[in-house]
Structures are given as structure tokens and as C-alpha cells.
Design goal:
The chain is α/β, with parallel strands linked by helices. Helices cover 52% and strands 16% of the residues. The protein is built from eleven helices and eight strands. An eight-stranded mixed sheet has the order 3-2-1-4-7-6-8-5.
Length: 306
């Protein structure tokens, strides 16, 4: 089984060498590597042009969807593995990712874990990311394009990545695959490690863009409606003069934060950090939820305008 590995990149010079190094250490080396650069200005393209075994395509101005479609069109093989060029791949990533395809699956859903470098990034990782593969239900899991592989027929069946959608394109494709009843199988040991945003501001804008993409793509409307409802109810409870609405809201907040706080506790060993995380993680959850609500509202406006 020959496989083409594809990726897109934009201004990734700081991390491209780590990515290429992890590719070189794969126990199953891809038969070709095709990377589309969306118009980097930091020397990324020059680094890729000098890399052995990499086919670089310069697609200035291409968004992620367009870049992936260009890479797929240029790929020589009908098995396509996809990741991002700022990831660090575990040595067995591709070998494990191809296993479900070798067994007949249409799509192999790899796993991904964050690269953390301190207390704040540990807390951010705990908010929205599973601690390990045991938290994943393979029947409902939606893979990220940083760790997925599929047959060319599978991506052709949904018309490729939606170039009208700048972000959230991988989730849009996932939903189309599920709707068509394709054979998606989980590959928990195919682990790609990816970098979280370095600041709270960058994290806010990241989730704003994710939610805006959800709205434009018609993804997860129930989930976003529930978030608006929960925070609306919280505002009403806090404004109430009665005690019981506040107590009910507090109980709901504790229940909502239980899983992320538990992840943070399991990630950390220091007792003081664990106690601090019990305060920081709920605050980060509210910070990210504010980004999601603002992004979803902006996306709905854009969708109506479009």
C-alpha cells in the first residue's frame, strides 16, 4: 500500500524542522510528501524546498481547504495521510494510521495530543482536549485533519474540502462522511502532537474562528445553542434576589467544570498547582466560551450575508 502524506503550511518556519524530523523517524515512511505553502513570508518555503523527499507547491493565498485540495490533486497515490506542518508525529504515527485502511476502512481516524510547556498550557489542554484515547467514543469521534488518513474515493465522495470555508473544513468533511455511512475506524495509537496557542489572546481568537467556521458550515447548532442558553440562564440566576437560583447555578458550574478540572489534576503532580488549576480551569472555560459565542454569532451574520 503506497501512501501520499499531505500537509499545508503558512509561516511555520519556527516549527517546520521539528515536523520534518518527526517524519524522518517514522517506522513507516510515506512514499511521498506533498506540502502546499499558502504564501509564507518567514522563510518556510525555502526550508521546505531544501528538504529531502518533499514536494513543495506554492499556493499563495490558498486557504487550508484549497491547499489540501491542491495537494490531493498532486498526490500520486490513492491512500492519503493528512497532518499539519507544525505537528510533531510519534514514530509509529503513520504505521498505526494505515492499519485500519489496510484492513478495509475508508477512513482512519488518528489521535492527537497537545504539546505543553507549563502550567497555563496544561490548563488550556485540560479545557477542551481529551487526556487520552480512553475518553474517545469511536462511534461518534470526529477526527482532526492533523491526524487522519483516507482512500481517495472517500474524499472524492464529498467533493473534497470546502474551499468556501476557511476554518472547520475538516469537521465539515467528517459530517459528510458520517452522513454517507463510510467506514470510519479509530486508530488510537496514531498520535500527532500539536502546539497550543502561546497566549490567552491568541487562544481566544483561535476558538472565535473555530466557532465562526461552525456557524458558516452549519455545524453543531445544538451545541452552540445550549452554550448560549446556559450562560443566559447563569446571568438570570446571578441577577435574581433569591438564593436558590444562585445555588443551582453554582451546582451546574461545578458539574460543567468537573471533567476539565479532573484532567488538569491528572496532568499535574504538584499539589499547589492542582489547587490553583481548580480556579484557573473554570476561568479559562468561561474565556473560551466567550470566544465561541462571539465567533458563532459572527458566523451566523456572515452566513446570512452570504
Amino acid at each position: 500500500m503506497k501512501v501520499s502524506l499531505i500537509a499545508t503550511v503558512l509561516n511555520g518556519a519556527d516549527h517546520i524542522e521539528a515536523f520534518l524530523g518527526s517524519l524522518a523517524l517514522q517506522t513507516r515512511v510515506p512514499d511521498e510528501v506533498v506540502i502546499v505553502d499558502g504564501g509564507s513570508t518567514d522563510g518556510t518555503a525555502a526550508l521546505l524546498a531544501d528538504a529531502d523527499g518533499v514536494t513543495l507547491i506554492e499556493g499563495s493565498g490558498a486557504n487550508i481547504s484549497r491547499g489540501r485540495n491542491i495537494a490531493i490533486a498532486a498526490a500520486a497515490h490513492d491512500m492519503i495521510a493528512v497532518t499539519d506542518a507544525d505537528c510533531v508525529l510519534e514514530p509509529t504515527w503513520l504505521e498505526e494510521l494505515l492499519r485500519p485502511l489496510e484492513e478495509g476502512a475508508d477512513v482512519a481516524m488518528g489521535f492527537y495530543l497537545p504539546i505543553t510547556d507549563g502550567f497555563l498550557s496544561e490548563c488550556l489542554a485540560a479545557v477542551n482536549l481529551p487526556l487520552d484515547a480512553s475518553e474517545v467514543d469511536p462511534e461518534t469521534f470526529m477526527p482532526s485533519a492533523r491526524s487522519v488518513a483516507y482512500r481517495r474515493d472517500a474524499i472524492d465522495a464529498v467533493g473534497g474540502y470546502p474551499e468556501w470555508l476557511d476554518i472547520g473544513e475538516d469537521m465539515w468533511v467528517n459530517h459528510r462522511w458520517r452522513e454517507r455511512g463510510l467506514d470510519l475506524r479509530f486508530a488510537p495509537d496514531a498520535v500527532a502532537r500539536w502546539r497550543l496557542r502561546p497566549t490567552l489572546r491568541a487562544t481566544w481568537w483561535q476558538y472565535f474562528r473555530y466557532a465562526r467556521g461552525d456557524a458558516r458550515g452549519g455545524l453543531y447548532p445544538e451545541r452552540h445553542a445550549l452554550r448560549f442558553g446556559v450562560y443566559g440562564g447563569l446571568a438570570v440566576a446571578l441577577a435574581s434576589r433569591r438564593t436558590w437560583p444562585k445555588a443551582l447555578a453554582a451546582a451546574g458550574a461545578v458539574t460543567h467544570a468537573r471533567v476539565p478540572v479532573g484532567r488538569a489534576w491528572r496532568r499535574m503532580q504538584d499539589g499547589r498547582e492542582r489547587k490553583f488549576a481548580a480556579i484557573v480551569v473554570p476561568a479559562l472555560m468561561a474565556w473560551i466560551d466567550s470566544a465561541k459565542m462571539a465567533g458563532y454569532a459572527a458566523g451566523l451574520v456572515a452566513r446570512l450575508r452570504d
